[in-house]
Specification:
Length: 245
């Protein structure tokens, strides 16, 4: 039997799936996770419970729609493959049927900038795609339109999808999308949320590009995400005074 490639990365995919369910942003085997490799990507197999998933159940695929191994990839492999092909910055993808994101997707409602954190999407709204049947090229095509200049979108009558530079950040973004959808839902129940206009969101989006960067990582063109307080010099250490005797 040939040696299983990318074993450590396969385990990271499984850990992400388990975390996705533990965090309450997915149920059962409805979602799926993928990560880019040098030769294509790895994606969860179709229909296998995450608690029973082993590294061999994480399927290796290329970017031409081929797979290796004994297990079929997720029914949504096309969406993952097409994001990896269209968006070079995407290194990992998380697709879930989280409760509030899916509810808004079923209402076919874009989420506007009711809160500045909508900027995590990469723009001033969280778009919802047109409807297309799961697992089809039509779904992948309409998803890519909704993802234009965005890192996440809702999928009509389906769920949400988000990508990031690694598995941890893709999972984080999917969690943020669900939280924003829940907040928007609650705000709409209470009344009509005040929406931040494009002018107000422009500076937010510029600052979000440097979110998480430390001073040494910033370039002269970066808008700082943190308006830093004054930096103090380290206090000199004080040696304990010896006893006189």
């Amino acid at each position: 039997m040939p040696k299983l490639k990318y074993r450590a990365l396969r385990k990271d995919v499984i850990a992400t799936c388990l975390a996705m369910n533990e965090e309450g942003i997915n149920q059962g085997t409805s979602g799926n996770v993928s990560v880019r490799t040098d030769e294509g990507f790895l994606i969860t197999a179709s229909g296998i419970p995450y608690k029973k998933m082993k590294p061999v159940h994480v399927v290796e695929m290329d970017l031409d729609g081929g797979y290796r191994g004994d297990f079929l990839p997720s029914t949504e492999w096309r969406m993952h493959m097409d994001i990896f092909k269209a968006r070079p910055e995407a290194k990992a993808i998380v697709h879930t049927h989280s409760m509030f994101a899916t509810a808004l997707a079923c209402l076919r409602k874009d989420v506007p900038a009711f809160h500045y954190m909508i900027g995590v999407t990469g723009g001033s709204s969280l778009r919802v795609s047109d409807y297309a049947e799961f697992g089809t090229q039509a779904l992948s095509d309409t998803m890519l339109k909704a993802l234009a200049d965005r890192k996440a979108c809702l999928l009509a009558n389906h769920g949400q999808i988000a990508f990031g530079p690694d598995l941890e950040k893709a999972l984080w973004l999917a969690g943020e999308i669900e939280a924003l959808c829940k907040q928007y839902w609650a705000a709409c129940l209470a009344g009509a949320p005040a929406i931040l206009d494009d002018k107000l969101m422009k500076t937010v989006l510029a600052r979000f590009k440097s979110y998480g960067k430390q001073p040494d990582d910033l370039t002269k063109d970066d808008a700082p995400s943190v308006f830093a307080p004054a930096k103090r010099a380290d206090a000199p250490s004080r040696k304990p005074k010896g006893k006189k005797g």
